[in-house]
Specification:
alpha+beta, 4-stranded antiparallel β-sheet, 4 strands, about 20% helix, globular, UCP037692, YheE family protein
Length: about 70
Amino acid sequence: MLQHFKFTPMFENRQLPGWNISFFYRNERITGEYHPDGRIVWMSKQPDDEEAVKKMIHELMLFHVYD
């Protein structure tokens, strides 16, 4: 489970898509960039079970951003 999930726009002009994301997963802080096409670029060490984490992130972004 992801804890303390946060996202902020990458650009001052909020019309431009792209978000910086950060969260804790298994007691490790993980950061990355979430792109409009669903691609995630990890800025920190990528999670061991990357596919499961990506699925959780996509669900959160759909709920918070694209709602």
